[in-house]
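Sample 1 of the test manifest.
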Amino acid sequence: MRITSPQQLEKLRKECIARLDKFPRKVLICCGPGCLASGAQKIVDEFKKKLKSKRIKNFSVEAMKETGCHGFCEQGPLVVIEPDGTFYTKVKVKDVDEIIDKTIRNEEVIERLLYKDPKTGNKIEKYSDIPFYAKQTRIALRNVGKINQCDIDEYIATGGYKGMAKALTKMKPKDVIEQVKKSGLRGRGGGGFPTGRKWESCAVLEEQPHYVICNGDEGDPGAFMDRVIMEGDPHTVLEGMIIAAYAVGANEGYIYVREEYPLAVINLQKAIEQTTEYGLLGDGILGTDFNFQIKISRGGGAFVCGESSALMKSVAGEVGEPRAKYIRSVQKGLFDKPTVLNNVESYANVPVIIDRGGDWFAKIGTSTSTGTKAFSLVGKVRNSGLIEVPMGTTLREIIYDIGGGLQNDRPFKAVQTGGPSGGCLPADKLDLSVDFDTLTKAGSMMGSGGMIVMDDRTCVVDVAKYFLAFLNNESCGKCVPCREGLYQLHALAVKVSEGRATEDDLELMEKLSENIVLGSLCGLGKSGPNPFLSTVMYFRDEYLEHIRDKKCSAGVCRALITYEIDEELCDGCMACIGVCPHDAITGAKKKLHTIDKSLCDRCGACYAVCQRNAIKIL
Amino acid sequence: MTINGKICKAEEGEMLLAVIRRQGIDIPALCDHGAVEPFGACRLCMVEITKESWDGWKKHVTSCLYPVEEGLIVQTHTDKVIELRKTVLDLQLARCPGSPEIQQLAAEYGITQTSFEETIDSDNCILCGLCTRICEEMGFAAISTIGRGHLKEVGPPLKEPPPDCVGCLACAQNCPTHVIPYEDEGIYRTIWDKKFERIQCSKCGKLGITKDFAEALIKMRGLGEDYFDICDECRRKETALTMGRISQWEREVVE
Amino acid sequence: MKVDLDKLPEIFERYPKTSQSLIAVLQDIQKEYHYLPDEAMQQTAEHLDVPLSKVYSVSTFYNAFSLIPRGEKVIRVCMGTTCHIRGAQQVLERLENELGIKAGNTTEDGKYTLETVACVGACAMAPVVAVNEDFHGHITVGNCKKLVK
């Protein structure tokens, strides 16, 4: 069925809403990455099976939705009953029967599946009352967790393709650009470049053809916002790209999806097929004379391909080696033609900006960082998951109000933001506003939205070493400062963590870092030393402790710690003996175990399994 | 534009490096070569640039890749730039401690020993990429880069004698650190473990290019089938003879 | 090891015959055969009219490709930042111990390949281990043995 006018689209919208209203109550099963990894698929299958066989008034398997990430991954698998708002956590397959019989059939709430607030000890029924959700504002994630993943009818029912229809039939390309400029939208991939300006600089170029690319590479370890959007609401990405293509005069677009996200590729492909079938993508979109095709290009597994020029080389089937960007990719991008490249989350905001106007968007957030931002709040925080908050929210609000503070109430040490290009910020920076510029001034950056919380058991030297190893592995190898520089910087970080470094080495690391930043060809190299530079700025004492005292207070750096079993606490369960890879632990059942320090390499396996906290790290 | 305080002219479309060199200023540029597009990999040719309208804000760019602009103010030997060159050479020395070319270049910048950990079993390849770029430019693309990052190397596909190699030696002859070996023995030439037969001049017997290279050139440039059967020198003499512009005495000598 | 490459023509048919399709073609070959056989790379070079050196360059640049056969079950331990601070290194070492191989290798019987992966985007369930297409969260030293039983 091809939709060839905005009126037809509105008619379809009403039909879709009516269809959805057929069963006013619905059960939503979260199929986000976290819940999938906890077994959500089995819960979906069980619901399908049971709903098909049971007879329930005003309910059927049609009222069941497999949605994208609802956000509160720590509490998954999640099941939500709408419009009640009832929120069930850590659901197991054996709970499904009860949920259907009690909650769906009789509107009874099952207490034991409700979220328990650790502060008050109370159970909370509705997710909107849970602190994790209460402080969020979802724009990019507006549909994720609410609609069936990649279902175009549901997308249309919630207002989908309205913005696109407005742009294509009521606005000129330059009007679209004007609205995006007014909105103040800045690149959500981390670069923060004003989106409207980028589109404008491409639109005016005479050289044809123009291209529109969506960067779905999301290489930052710890970040999964884009994955969630691509899987949970792929249509918003398509709609954003169509609007962009119309604005800059492009007829061909690519979505570059990371190799490690096969489900995102499947959902995006489905969405493209659905949209094309409806005549909302392809030739003569919505009955206008605007043509636009989208193809999916899969990454091959290379962090450097998140960099725009490397990404474009990868789309062209080549090795992802960046080029110096003295001539911007907006001018010479894919196949050397004018190209607009934006991040998934940036596109997800576009349909709403066009529908409700740039001014509306600009009212949210701060004056220089408008709108909201999605974050993956992970690490040693109590409430791990995916959130979206207005720009300007402070780190403290995010980590404590939404995140619920640190696991086991351990002391906060640092929060790592911005991925490998960012840095660690200590406790006295918790009241900083999260936006594009404030964190950068403090030596880190907001980046793509990864926010990793660390407690006192995290060693910053180890963190720096980890990131340097990662970047070293991912370096394309083209330029000397990055390829050789990061390799040597990592080697020196290893020296520090093993207690073999001198203070001269620390100075050498700082000087080397300066030159890597100055001399590298692309962003990977230029920001590569950041994990080291930011940690040495705020935690210099910890580095010096490793160097002068050969000590690791966090108890992480293996060469500087020893493991011992506490006599009082050990109950002789033999769990540690079972996991020690070096057979360094001896002992009999119910008798005290001992560690042979000459064989022990402090790998941490015993520490991880001991239920009595009897393993001491010295 | 101005380079080190001196005003000079440049052509639109030129890169900074060419203009800098024209002023007689010597800056190293290991991965640069007239026959191929600039690459920007070695970073040694970096310079500081600014403009009056930039209000004191400076930028550092690789001059081999930066297109000239009206009013550009360039400094090629500031403290920061020299510091950067030193670091790059220091790092290269760590990678190729036994390379005489790198040792010499590093010494020019005051570095006799690397501050870093020397990479073991280094083959003195500085990964400038010239060999692969030139091979591609020649039209063969027989070798390429392999892998990425610190373990990147240059070599033939599948680590076997490259099927597309014709033994033209462009890679070996343009390698800045001379690490591509080749061997000439009798009428045979071996490079990348591939053995080629060289053409012998039908007139004087001198050994010339490989048969494969000759075949490729004949095809690429539309030359006669027997074009390479005589060497250049003999061809010159033949041509001269045919054109009849030599004296009787010379004719006797040649014959 | 001789591999029957009968699926190649079908894979070639899926994509336009240009150099742009190189990565996609190689990915499908990787998925079908669990690695990139030499002969397959040679045929790809011929079919797409791309120098063999370029095919080799691409296949060695990206993490997705393996030039040696992978096992039936590919175990990928996520080494992303969150997984790292929640103990991924210990999980990796435990699995190395259980399988008797180091990361990047395959067991002698061809059943398991153990690898690391940069980040699979399930960070809230860290540490995460993927076995072929299935993702498992909250894997620890204590429970990771079940993945290789």
